[in-house]
Predict the structure.
Amino acid sequence: MNNKVSALINDQINKEFYSAYLYLDMANFYTQKGLDGFANWFEVQAKEEQDHALLMYRYLQNNGEKVTFEAVAKPDKTFEKLIDPLKEGLAHEKYVTSLINTIYEAAQESKDFRTTQFLDWFIKEQGEEEKNSIDLITKMELFGDDARSLYLLNSELAARVYTAPSLVL
Ligand code: MG
């Protein structure tokens, strides 16, 4: 595998773990606010990010590449309003999309079609992540200021169940 592509995927493993950490921090914020459904939604989100990291870890290993773990950064976002983590989450997903695109570009440049095919799943996944974030922000903007609606939205988010990714390596 091209050195640059391998290094970018290795770096992305760290970024995915950071995403998990960030989402867990958001879950923690909502738990402190008494919104267990919102907390559940972000805990599921955190598990998905760990999956992303593990898929990349396995992909590098399967291709004979060395995996190096670096320190995971401390989540440093601060939240005041209930909608803040949702907006930070969307901004973060857009950032992750740009990172995946950069890896994809590097793989394409080195004609590494195995990696572009591997990344296709992540490209699609990022589209879903951004849409989920936007939908949640929309609901929060519509209903978040009303206590009864917030209660219902919290109940809806409490029902989110974790499912392992369907990607086969
Ligand atoms: Mg991810």
